[in-house]
Amino acid sequence: MKNDLFITGCSGFVGKNLIEVLKDDYNINCFQRNSEIKIKKEVVIHLAGKAHDMKNTSVASEYYQVNTDLTIKVFDAFLASNSKVFITLSSVKALSDNADGVLLENQKPNPITHYGKSKLLAEQYIFSKEIPDGKRVYVLRPAMIHGPGNKGNLNLLYRLVKLGVPYPLAAFKNERSFLSIANLIFAVDKIINDKSFPTGVYHIADDETFSTRDLVELIGEASGKVARTWFIPRRLIKGLAKVGDIMHLPLNSHRLQKLTESYLVSNEKLKKALGVKHMPVSGKEGLSRTIKSFTR
Fold first, then answer.
1. Is-contact 111 95, C-beta < 8 A?
2. Which fold does the domain 3-213+256-293 belong to in CATH?
3. What letter would DSSP give residue 108?
4. Between helices 283-293 and 212-223, what is the axis angle to 10°?
5. In 13, 41, 196, 200, which residue has its Cα 20 to 30 A from 244's Cα atom?
6. Residues 125, 72: contact at Cβ < 8 Å?
7. For the sheet containing 209-210, what is the strand order?
């Protein structure tokens, strides 16, 4: 018998990919925005949320209305229903906006942005409630998710390589964790079907990490283009980013930070719970799939 899924955020990047993979194995019901939350399904997957605004034009209250208040409403509806499993997509930014070392689940949260704070408030509400016997609750904190249809910084880097524009930030050294959408879906599917999976917070990321320069080279390899890099002085680049803040250019201070900061996420707790030594899709394979999807 198929499990019944109640999913919020069906039209988003993660939702579309999740439904495409799981639709043959589950009965899926999508939450319609502005409708009353009525849960009559076995499993609740809460994906709806407000992502971090690269242009910093969002009003702070929008993050709390969507990431905090909506999550609370969906979780309360889950508690009041006969549903057995609740999975919500939070963010590693709920723990920290800047990673000093490798981020672990048991570290003290200290988000700075309204995005991170709104996600953390939702998490805190969830675990402030007593979880009834027979119900399982999971908060997944993903690293930067990528996959077919992704429109984030990977797409920006791809366009630069495709146009033959040299990557100008090679002077910055960094190392980052990423998450293939395939690995996220794998974990969600396992959690739903494993009744012994411990309730809790889990970081989720691919096994391998990459520098932005690595990504540029991988984009060239996957797309058959020549990837060029420039070692422009960091001080000059930071000055140009400040100009981008004012002129609303593609390179601004926030995007510069995203492209050049190190941000490492441990997936060891999740892999132990999953009973695997490695995530099914390697970091390089997942990124190559994403990059190749940009050419279609």
1. yes
2. Rossmann fold (3.40.50)
3. P
4. 60
5. 13
6. yes
7. 144-146, 176-180, 209-210
Q: For residue 194, what are its two tokens?
A: 């494993």
- Which tokens go with 162? 């495709």
Q: How far apart are CA 177 and CA 283, in angstroms?
A: 9
- CA dihedral (81, 41, 17, 188) positive or negative: positive
Q: What is the pLDDT of residues 56-87, one digit of tens each?
A: 556 889 999 999 999 999 999 999 999 999 99
pLDDT digits (tens, 9 = 90+) for 247-258: 888 789 888 887
What count of residues does the chain have? Answer: 296
* SS3 call for 273: helix
Closest CA to 209 of 251, 250, 265: 265
Domain spans in the chain, listed from the N-terminal domain onward: 3-213+256-293
Displacement of CA 121 from its chain's centroid (Å):
17
Question: Can you read off the two tokens belonging to residue 206?
Answer: 């691919």
Closest CA to 73 of 32, 120, 125: 125
Question: What is the rounded distance in angstroms from the CA atom of residue 265 to the CA atom of residue 210?
Answer: 12
Total-model pTM:
0.90
